[in-house]
Amino acid sequence: MTTAPRTSPRPRARLLVLGVALAAALLAADQVTKRLAERGLERGVRVDVLGDVLGFRLFYNSGAAFSLGTGITPVLSVFACLAVVAILVALTRSGSLRWSLALGALLGGALGNLTDRLLRPPGPFRGEVVDFIEIPFSFPIFNVADMAVVAGAVSIVLLSLVGQELGGGRAPARADAGTGSGSGAAADARAPRPTDPPRDS
User: Fold this and answer.
1) In the predicted model, is pLDDT for residue 90 greater than 70?
2) CA–CA distance from 92 to each of 56, 65, 99, 159 (Å)?
3) Which of 30, 52, 116, 131 is catalytic?
4) How far is CA 29 from the centre of its chain?
5) What is the dihedral of CA 55, 59, 65, 67, to 10 degrees?
6) Best CA proximity match to 30, nearest among 151, 110, 143
7) From the candidates 146, 176, 196, 200, which is the catalytic residue?
8) 131: annotated active-site residue
9) pLDDT (tens digit, 9 = 90+) per residue, 116-129?
10) Could you state, in order of their start, the residue ranges of all structural domains in the chain?
């Protein structure tokens, strides 16, 4: 009996380069937009872009993404460094295009904010992150790196939910709990019935 040939996984080296390239592009976009925001915006003053739907307001954040965790900047910086290493390790093991793109987005966002932590005042591991994008409903001000982190994290969750594995395969489907009883009943129905005992004449 011959089995159908399995499709070969994408070369991991190419997927690694793709993920790193996406991360580099997002890192560059994040840093460029932050520089432009600092040059063109006054701190704390909102500039409407799409009326009340979207605006720019320059803000310096010492916390995590979306202004969470202020006051523990060095701890967040160390955690971000560890996260970057973990994402890079995962990228080297990726055999899936979707996983590589998701990890690349996550890596680019993490590197964007980590760059601020390391290079901006008041000093290494204590630098403040530049935020400038504001949307309604009192949502925290954020930046391009924050959007990349969210996009990557959501993509990873969705890939896990649909059974897409990091290595490129799919998680085996769970067997239906009722399959065993149903197949047994079907087998009983197909089994030949014993002949009736002979009647006494």
Assistant:
1) yes
2) 37, 26, 11, 17
3) 131
4) 18
5) -110
6) 143
7) 146
8) yes
9) 999 999 999 999 99
10) 21-161
